[in-house]
Amino acid sequence: QTLYDQQAFYSATRWLLNNQDLQTGCWFIHVQRNYAHHTHYHLRNSWCSAMAQAASLLVRLYSLTNNKEHLLAIRRAIQPL
C-alpha cells in the first residue's frame, strides 16, 4: 500500500464522516437524475446514496482505529438499507 493510497483512504473516510446525515445515516445527493428518456423513472433532488459502499469503507476504518464514533457512523449508514 502506498502513501497515496493511505491518503486517499483517510480523505474519503473524513468526507464520509463529515457529510453523513446524522438522523438518517444517508449521504444525500443534491442533483436530480433522469434515466432513459422513454421511461418516467427519475430520482429527485436530495436522494440517499452509497450506504453499502460507505459502510464498507467505515468498517475498514473502524478495524484500524477502534474509534466508537466510527462504529456509530457504520450503524447509521446501514439504517436505510
UniProtKB/TrEMBL annotation:
Pfam families tied to this protein: C5-epim_C
UniProt-listed PANTHER family: D-GLUCURONYL C5-EPIMERASE (PTHR13174:SF3)
GO biological process: heparan sulfate proteoglycan biosynthetic process
Residue intervals of the D-glucuronyl C5-epimerase C-terminal domain: 21-80
Protein name, per record: D-glucuronyl C5-epimerase C-terminal domain-containing protein
GO molecular function: heparosan-N-sulfate-glucuronate 5-epimerase activity
GO cellular component terms listed in the entry, alphabetical order: Golgi apparatus
Lineage: Eukaryota, Metazoa, Spiralia, Gnathifera, Rotifera
